[in-house]
Design brief:
single chain; mainly alpha; globular
Amino acid sequence: MIPDLAGVCTLDGLAERLTLLRQDAGSPSYTTITRRIGAARAARGVPAEERAPGRITVYDCFRTGRRRMDVELLSDIVQALGADPGPWRRAHRAASGPALPLPSTVRRR
């Protein structure tokens, strides 16, 4: 059963749901997830040096207490676990809080 993402409003909540998704996918090792991500990125034409994230980097996405989470890596992990990344991207947006405004430009006189 794919975890319900409704109400996820923190990165901790997102990490907890990601752990549930991993369990639902048969608890593949972080090494296996990393290999799947590398293969999917290769199929998309990502250059070899950018394909495989570090195993610890993948592991860190499942930990609570994070201040940031890369949405592209999250999407790749979710796909490697056999789920649709769209809802996870939306949950990430909600959990990451509002986007910070761009700094205003300074006009010189």
